[in-house]
Amino acid sequence: MSETVSFGYEEVDAGEKEQRVGAVFSSVARKYDVMNDAMSAGMHRLWKDKFVRRVKPREGEQILDMAGGTGDIAFRMEKHGASITVSDINQDMLDVGIERAMERGIDGLVWSRQNAEELSFPARFFDAYTIAFGIRNVTHIDKALAEAFRVLKYGGRFFCLEFSTTEWPGFKEVYDSYSHKLVPKIGQMIAGDADSYRYLIESIRRFPPMPEFEAMIRNAGFRHTKVEPIMGGLVAIHSGWKV
């Protein structure tokens, strides 16, 4: 029997998920950052700022920003002097990021189309690996984590910013209602695509809870793992070290 994986609330063939996720992000690429502002009331900018402060990019470091698409994380890290490789499986997202970099006069980034499960980079090449709001869209999360571990140098650090499940009493119910009922409508109004945003919300619900995902990071070989919940766990920063 063929392997099935989650695509939102659906169960689909593992080989089908990559294509369907690709179609989602190709559809929303041009409006992705506008939609992030609309869905989070601009708070995603604060989350990303905090995330980069935790990464502490340094001059001379090689950092891989996986699922970096439109460049939001890379632009924040580049100003600290690190050499950033921005990778994404979706060329449409990368194209938007390249255009944004040109508009900002940023020409020192490397842009590389990559599958997080099968990176073409050599082992022990990067000082840090970052992935923000991308790992839940990977077909096999364990393979992506194994690749992150492989391409990091010893002493390298892994940082992941991802939605999770808020533990604040009362807020969870309000957020669930907002996300399921309003976000697809906002997606239709702004991006002309309700279905893609319905999937993005469903993919958040299907993502492992914080303790389970931290265990997956440890199982990939990382040590000194840590979870930092934001807004009670609505968003979380996961980290680990290759030692």
TrEMBL record:
* Record has Ribonucleoprotein as a keyword: no
Query: GO biological process: what's one of them?
Result: methylation
Keywords in UniProt for this one?
Answer: Menaquinone biosynthesis, Methyltransferase, S-adenosyl-L-methionine, Transferase, Ubiquinone biosynthesis
Name the positions where S-adenosyl-L-methionine binds: T70, D88, N115, A116
Its recorded reaction(s) are:
a 2-demethylmenaquinol + S-adenosyl-L-methionine = a menaquinol + S-adenosyl-L-homocysteine + H(+); a 2-methoxy-6-(all-trans-polyprenyl)benzene-1,4-diol + S-adenosyl-L-methionine = a 5-methoxy-2-methyl-3-(all-trans-polyprenyl)benzene-1,4-diol + S-adenosyl-L-homocysteine + H(+)
**Which molecular function term from Gene Ontology is one that the record holds?**
methyltransferase activity
Q: Which InterPro entries match?
A: SAM-dependent_MTases_sf, UbiE/COQ5_MeTrFase, UbiE/COQ5_MeTrFase_CS
Query: Which sequence ranges are marked TM in the entry?
Result: none
Calcium found in the keyword field: no
Enzyme Commission code: 2.1.1.163, 2.1.1.201
In which pathway is this protein known to take part? Quinol/quinone metabolism; menaquinone biosynthesis; menaquinol from 1,4-dihydroxy-2-naphthoate: step 2/2; Cofactor biosynthesis; ubiquinone biosynthesis
Q: Which family does the similarity line name?
A: Belongs to the class I-like SAM-binding methyltransferase superfamily. MenG/UbiE family.
Annotated function: Methyltransferase required for the conversion of demethylmenaquinol (DMKH2) to menaquinol (MKH2) and the conversion of 2-polyprenyl-6-methoxy-1,4-benzoquinol (DDMQH2) to 2-polyprenyl-3-methyl-6-methoxy-1,4-benzoquinol (DMQH2).
The name this protein goes by in its record: Ubiquinone/menaquinone biosynthesis C-methyltransferase UbiE
Which source organism does the UniProt entry give?
Answer: Novosphingobium album
Task: Give the classification, highest ranks.
Answer: Bacteria, Pseudomonadati, Pseudomonadota, Alphaproteobacteria, Sphingomonadales
